[in-house]
Amino acid sequence: MSLDRWESGVTVVRSRWTGLERDWQSVVVAATIIVTTGLLEVQIPW
Question: What domain of life does the native source organism fall in (predicted)?
Answer without folding.
Answer: Archaea
